[in-house]
Amino acid sequence: MPGPELGTTSGLPAKLRQAREKIRAFQEKVRPYQNTINKVRIVLYAIAIPWAIFIAVKSLPYYAAIGKGESFYKQGLYDDAEREFLYCYEQCKTENSNDPRLARVLNNLGMLYRGTGRYRLAEPYMKESVELVEKYSKKHEELPMSLSNQGALYSDEGRYSEAEKVYRRAIQVWKDKVKRESDTKLGSVYNGLARVLREQGKLDEAMQAASKALAMKERAAGKDSVDSTPVLENLGKIAQRQGDFKNAEKYFSSALAIDRKAFGEKHPDVASDQCSMGRLLTDEGKLQQARPLLESSLATRKQFFHAGHPTIAKTLCSLGQLEIKEGRRDEAIDYLTEALHKQSKILGKQHPDTLETANSLKQAQAMQASKISKTFRAKTEK
Fold first, then answer.
1. What's the pTM?
2. H helix count then E strand count, the chain
3. End-to-end CA gap in the chain
4. What is the pLDDT of residues 87-131, one digit of tens each?
5. Cβ(270)–Cβ(260) under 8 Å?
6. Residues 39-56: tens digit of each pLDDT
7. Is the dihedral of CA 265, 267, 272, 273 positive or negative?
8. Are 274 and 297 within 8 A, CB to CB?
9. How far apart are CA 213 and CA 12, in angstroms?
10. How far, in Å, CA of 197 to CA of 202, rounded?
């Protein structure tokens, strides 16, 4: 059957012609008012352009401060970062309590306080950030990332089942709204999920989630990117839990080499890698190799964090466990007692890290009691 011919009222050419005729008819109707329309347009431009310039200039201090704060945070300069973020927070609150820029500031403050072990300070900022993003940015990546950061805080606090729910929601929101299958930010969410699955003993699920996270990170930033090191460290911890010490050591070594190259020897990320590797080597009985790593980790963490920071306590606990294996009971008790005091105060007595330290301290004290008992028996037998 032949198609429609030109000149008929059907077909695409005819529809285009009809549309052009309607436009011309509309133009004819508004022609008498064209001068008025042009004047209104000029007035609107005269108002809009200066207003846009005014808003941009007024926002410059905010964007300068937020950029500086984020740079300071990456360098581990937490006091400087806090000062810049608090300046942005006050500026947003002064302008408008519902300023969408506020969500970024709230998130940054929450992450800063979480990273420095001040979990009680972090939680309200994280909560408000999520609420604000849900109100203004439901269709963007801000919501799943804010949820992911909230999940990280819950994980640090030992609230693993709550953290898992938040991470799974973040992934679902990403799939529904953002719809990018592979992204370095999505990789961070999967790594957070892997972490809480690991802590709950769901090791196979954890390995799957962390492997997916690493693939996303490496596709986006390359194999030697610092963006991948938290995932490598997590994979090492999962492998260690599975008893696969060979692969655990490989993951930790890769993370440590990348972070050292990027940040030098003295940086919180390097200290984290050193602590993880030191704990693994202690488990393997490679005590002479473990000690310098743990001691270096402790020195760096004391340099960057306040005395009560949970990672300092974690390293003290790790050194205490090393001393137990070397049979140095008094030194072990000193390290573990200090760690337990810090963890009980910051994390609470039921936090998994606190319980781990308490159990190690009991072991050291039992060894000490056994030594005293043997010494006493030896003296009485003489």
1. 0.78
2. 16, 0
3. 119
4. 888 888 776 666 678 888 999 999 999 988 889 999 999 999 998
5. yes
6. 556 655 555 555 444 344
7. negative
8. yes
9. 49
10. 5
